[in-house]
Amino acid sequence: MVLLAIMALGVVLAVVRYAGGIRSVANINNAYPWGWWVGFGIMTMIALGGVGFTITLLVEILGRHRYHALLRPAVLMALLCYASAIVMLMVELGRPWKVWMILVSWAPSAALYEVGWCAFLYLNVLVLEFVQVPLEELGWGRVLKVLRVIYIPIMLLGVTLSHLHQSSLGTLLTLIPHKINVLWWSEQLPLIFLFSAMMAGPALAILEYLAAARWLGFTPNIDMLGGLARIEAWLVGLLLVFRLGDLVIRGAVDAALSWTWFAVSFWVEIGFGLLLPLVLLMMPEVQASRGGLVTACSLVVAGVLLHRLNVAVFGLRVRHWETYVPSFGEIGITLGIAAGAVLVFGVLARMLPIHEELPPTVASQPRATAPAGAWHGARSVS
Amino acid sequence: MTNHWVDMINADVVMIMGGNPAEDHPIAMNWLTRTKERGAYIVHVDPRFNRTSSVADVFAKLRSGTDIAFVGGMIKYAIDNNRIQQEYVREYTNASWIVGDGYGFADGLFAGFDPAKKSYDRARWAFALDGQGQPRRDPTLKHPRSVFQLLKAHFSRYDVDTVCRITGTPKEAYLRVCDLYTSTYAPDRAGTWLYAMGTAQHSHGTQNVRSYAILQLLLGNIGVAGGGVNAMRGESNVQGSTDQGLNNDILPGYLKTPVEADTDLATYLKRVTPVTANAQSVNWLQNMPKYVVSLLKAWWGEHARADNDFAFSYLPRQGQGFQGEGYAFLALTHAMLAGDVKGLFCVGQNPAVGGANARLIRAGLDKLDWMVVVDLFEHETAGFWKRPDVDPTKIPTEVFVLPATSAVEKEGSIVNSGRWAQWRYRAVKPIAACRPDLEIIDGLAKAMKRAYEKDGVFPEPIRHLAWDYGHAADPHKVARELNGRYLADVAQPDGTRVAPGTQVAGFAQLRDDGSTMSGNWIYCGGYTEEGNLAARRDATDAPNGIGLYPKWAWVWPMNRRILYNRASVNRKGEPFNPRKWVIRWNAEKKAWEGDVPDGAMPPGAMNPFIMLASGVGQLYAPEMVDGPFPEHYEPVESPVRNPLSKTQSSPCAQVWQSTEFDKYGTAEVFPIVATTYRVSEHWQTGAMSRNMPWLAGLVPSAFVEIGTALAAREGIKSGDRVIVSSARGSIEVYALVTERFQPFFVDGRLIDEIGLPWHWGYAGIVSGDIANDLTASVGDPNTQIPETKVFLCNLRKKTPA
Amino acid sequence: MTTPSVKPKAMIQDNTRCIGCRACMIACKSWNNRPADHTEFFAGAGYQNPVDLDANNYTLITFNEIVTGAQPDWVFGRQLCMHCEHPACASACPTTALTKTALGPVVFNESRCIGCRACMQACPFLIPKYDYENLNPKIHKCTFCADRIEAGLKPACATVCPTAAISFGDRDDMVAEAKRRIATAPGTYIPEIYGLDDVGGTSVLHLSSVPFEQLGYITGLPKTPMPDLTHRWLRVTPHFFALLYAVFGALTWIMHRRANRSDSKGHTA
Fold it and tell me: From the CB of residue C262, how many other CB atoms can be counted at a distance below 10 Å?
């Protein structure tokens, strides 16, 4: 109900935006053309959508089928994240009715061009990946057969595309070293963006699984989650080292040690988004506890959110006479979209076999196409 | 101007004083940019560092109203350091003339002052004459009563310390200016002097200009390329308007208006035609009768005959004016207030905002029976009856507004400050009911003629007007008439005969027997049988390459681009500066080359200043009503006692005191000096520019510029609303705090000065309070031009209600 | 990029000649049909209006009071699109709505614009502006009067400037002229041509009597083109794609085979 209310508010605000122009709902201005919508609505959404390719990479490419129960939720989450980002884009763009122009242009020098195309193709991949689930329910056997034949190449395409556009969002921001504070701008931004998206994936998958378990009423397999948590710890640790090393190599340590709001935000991001979760995730007690996992993974996800916002919004200093603070309208619309995505996820999670209840201890699993446990939300088991 | 705009490129030093061309004549800055490129220095002397100062090489600040002290000190500096162009001064000025014993000067007053009449008996200042009635002379310039020695004595009191004590100029800057500018005394260096309203609009404005003229003569800078005394005229075609005699005291061509005592033509001509016994003086104006008669023939045609004094009696004659103070603007506004004026034609003017003591003016408009406004917009004067603080139902004036056209919507000529008459075609057709001024005046005249056909008091001057400019008034017909034509078959000196109807080739051919007519003798030669010379656009320069462009448009008089150019050569016709020669005598061809020489006679004894009866440049000018030499006086409203003499302000200044609006303040109540000026973005009273949205967007609101020190003391920041008040009223404007306007250290203490752009009024798409509500009805004794450039005021931050 | 018959143009903005009259601002608004600004007082220092470039003002004169010792100075600077040789805006635009033409201008084709505002983010001089209140908004910036210069005319601003503070001509000639001015009057100019090689060179060369940051100019920019920063990553996109695809494909196959082998060794699900 709450979700519906938030979503409705978002819709109302979006109508205002279309009827009255961007200025009627948003505070973005000439000095800060990108604000909350880009920082949260698009960049963070796409970073969180990395859960799709991360889990797919882990399960399908690296063969860690132990985690296959996380695959379908991950794909659905990714699909909804990307769909949300597209919806956000329709609000964010000055002329959303012209967005198809990207597809008929040739602009290989533009990072956004690459992001646009990749995201467009990846969205199609996600649809093709996910649509197997409802088609299974509907029993469209012939279509399913085709889909399963092309599954591997499509899946590989999806993972590869994700690597490209996750990093390209970082490439996009390498263009403005003079605007982004030294604490965040780096020539390695593409890699930072890619690694942090990869790092966000498992954390989000763990959070979602625990939340779904509570909400749908099944017992989560903590062992499996613990295993993933240990992998996650490695990812967090590597990113932490990479970020700090990059900071030192670029000679930005002084800025990090100064008494500015930038430094504060930076250390919050590093401390609460990387360091603390790393410590937590390395502890077996945390790996084995629901609460611990929720805490640690929430911190990781929040850290990624804060990073995107820092790089794209808060870490910018342009003209001294113009400031930017997100408006109620901007935040309202993004929350509305997010609420809508969660709502759809919830509805689909009830209607379709997304979540698999696993036995308490799990050995290595065979192929994901032959689940062994009970499916929740399934009308039939294939 | 004696010179012209393009000529600036020939200067080695440009002095800009009492003017702000970057803001008020921006197009002219093109020439000053080129001047600087050639290595010249630009000196800017002004109370405030403004946009002209930003491109000047040297900036020296001076307190408003102290120009004579400043320039007087430069004159002393030039004399003391022997920076005088000796031959020029000796030959071409009255430096060597001996002044009679009647002249004297003490305590700030010249001899012959009558305190009751507030005027001088100028006969006291006459020269000492010899037996033939010629002035006695001492070519060595050593005679103690020679003009030169009297000049030196007079300005000996203007030493650097005294000057800086009066003007508040930092001594180092002042000496830099003196050194730089007086370096132009050398024959191969020239200094040009540019000035505008900051010089003229003072109670001693004319004497301000006199001080420039004296210095320029001493330095040999008149009549040469890159020299001159050059007024930057205040309106686009004000030069044209004064040329055509629109001022109250002149007829077209600067002929004098008849006065009551001129009972007939002969009496008038005797009064206005200068005579001289000086054999070396050409005294060109001895030809005055030819120009007067030709003018009368132009106006009354066949009704102006030898037997009726050429209709001289049709001309109105001036009396003493309102309260004996003449007919100029201040007198007019007071007459209106007194109810003496029934009706007013207000053509292209907005006195409710632009006139000094504007509240007085608006109160005077209330007293009119009728007013006809001819303008592009309904400005403050046109809408005076609905201004903010009055009840329209109580004002009986009938107001007619005739919409006019702008310069691009009509054909005709505009004369720039350099006397260049440039003909312009019509670029766009007027909109709606807007009509060119010519059509409006033409229609009015025709209607009046029709009315006076039936009856009227003294109808002949109107009935008999020779008025034929076409069914639709044609500016070409007007221009042809200004040039003039032959009305009879006339024999020329070379034996040929000229048929009637032929355009006159030049004013030297005008005659006083009624056989020629000319609407304006100085324009004679501009529209000849060759055609409309003002329309020429040939950009070929003359052989001397000093930017004369003799075939671009037409210049009065006779296309002479640099006036008094015979002063640029010695008695043998050799240029003082061969690199930048203006004219030179070609002995083989027995002719002058270069610019049109100012007097065609061969080089020799005749003196170059042919328009002056004396024939020479006037260092000592006994014709001025307030003194033959300039003397520093404080403005009528001043914060200091005059440190130089016991005479506080100009003893002859016209200071109106007759009405409730004529109040004056003292420094106890109004300790701050105020001045008024313009900005680039607005034009005059803003009647046009405050109706242009783009311009209004740049500079929307009335503001006052205040120095940082004063602002800090009063707790004022930029953007605050402040009340500025004088003895005559108060206004509310925005404050702009700036480093560029700092106090002056005068006579041992700091005097603050602030400045108000005066472009705002209650009409227009952006409006503001009227700065001229604060200025006073004080006039220069020679011209009655109001002293709007300096007065006393006070200011305070407006506290929120 | 340039054919022999088309020589790229450039402009000199000489602030030592600028008298701050703002004829350029008005001419620009006139030529580009921009509406008037509704202002109340001044924004910025001196008589400046508005405070920055915006959708209605494609060029702006800044008023700067600079005091050295007791002597005040008033120096004017001008903001306008630099029409970079290697424009960051054009490289960042995903629909090629902004392109650099052979004659020099970086022109905006509004029919291609989707309003992503990447150009606004990318521009190091903060030039492109947006009319957010418009229902059909677009990017606003100086066009270098591309239509005028194609017709052999000068840009509107260069045409009206009364002091020749704005010069316009072939870029080679303008560079030579700028250098000549500095060389012949070293006391007048600081020895720097803003825009000569900043961000790889631009089409607007500024000269000044005081350091540019005192006039509100953005300084400290690299001498290399901004697009190099993204180009370095984007050009390996196809290689990256092929490599990753191959590696992931290989990994998938290896893992699949291992799983099959372990299956056949008897481990069941």
Answer: 12
Query: Where does the pLDDT of residue A178 fall: very low under 50, low under 70, confident under 90, or very high at 90 and above?
Result: confident
Do A and B touch, 3+ Cβ pairs within 8 Å? The answer is no
Structure tokens at B175: 């000496």
Under 8 Å CB-to-CB from B544, ≥6 apart: which residues? Answer: B225, B580, B581, B582, B593, B594, B595
Separation between Cα atoms, residue A134 and residue A138, nearest integer Å: 6
Contacts of A99 in chain C (CB under 8 A): 114
Q: Do C23 and B26 touch (CB under 8 A)?
A: yes
A154 lies in some domain: yes
Which residues from A are below 8 Å from C112, CB to CB? Answer: 98, 101, 105
Which residues fall within 8 angstroms of residue A238, CB to CB, at 6 or more apart? Answer: A195
Is there contact between C and B if contact means ≥3 C-beta pairs under 8 Å? Answer: yes
In a domain, residue A382? The reply is no
Q: Using alpha carbons, list the distances in angstroms from residue B182 to B67, B91, B170, B219.
A: 16, 20, 18, 7
Dmax over Cα atoms in chain A, in whole Å? 64
The answer to whether the CB of B8 falls within 8 A of the CB of B14 is yes
Give residue C90's pLDDT band: very low, low, confident or very high (50, 70, 90).
very high
Spatial CA neighbour of A39 closest among A263, A305, A374? A305
Boundaries of every domain in chain C: 9-86+138-227, 236-262
Place of tokens 């003292």: B666
As a whole number, the mean pLDDT across chain B is 96
Q: Looking at the whole model, is its pTM more than 0.90? A: yes
Biggest CA pair distance of chain B: 86
A361 in any annotated domain: yes
Picking from B88, B87, B102, B107, the residue whose alpha carbon sits closest to that of residue B145 is B102
DSSP A192-220: HHHHHHHHHHHHHHHHHHHHHIIIII---
- What the block records as the tokens of B723 is 């009340």
Band (pLDDT 50/70/90 cuts) for residue A380 is very low
Contact A21 C132 (CB under 8 A): yes
What CATH number should be reported for the domain holding residue A126? 1.20.1630.10
From residue A8, how far is each of A85, B95, B593 by CA, in Å? 18, 95, 91
ipTM, two decimals: 0.92
What is the phi/psi pair of residue B69, to 5°? -60, -45
Residue pair B759/B726 in contact (Cβ under 8 Å)? The answer is no
Pick the CATH number of C9-86+138-227 from 2.30.170.40, 3.40.718.10, 3.40.50.300, 3.30.70.20: 3.30.70.20
A26 interfacial to chain C (CB closer than 8 Å): yes
Question: Do C76 and C20 contact (CB within 8 A), yes or no?
Answer: yes
Helices (H), B110-146: none
First-last CA distance in chain C: 64
| Cβ pair C203, C85 in contact under 8 A | yes
Report yes or no on A380 lying in a domain.
no
Task: Compute the distance between CA of residue A181 and CA of residue A184 in angstroms, rounded to an integer.
Answer: 6
Bridge partners (DSSP) of residue C167 are C12
Name the residue type at position A185.
W
Distance from CA of C120 to the nearest CA of A (A): 7
State how far the alpha carbon of B562 is from the alpha carbons of B549, B582, C247, in Å: 12, 8, 88
Answer yes or no: are the C-beta atoms of C215 and C224 closer than 8 Å.
Answer: no
What is the helix (H) or strand (E) element at residue B528, kind and residue range?
Answer: strand B527-528
Highest mean pLDDT: which of A15-24, B170-179, C65-74? B170-179
C residues 109-148 lying closer than 8 A (beta carbon) to A: 112-118, 120-122, 124, 126, 129-130, 132-138
Q: Coil, helix or strand for A239?
A: helix
Domain limits at A224? 2-373
Residue ranges in chain B modelled with pLDDT below 70: 801
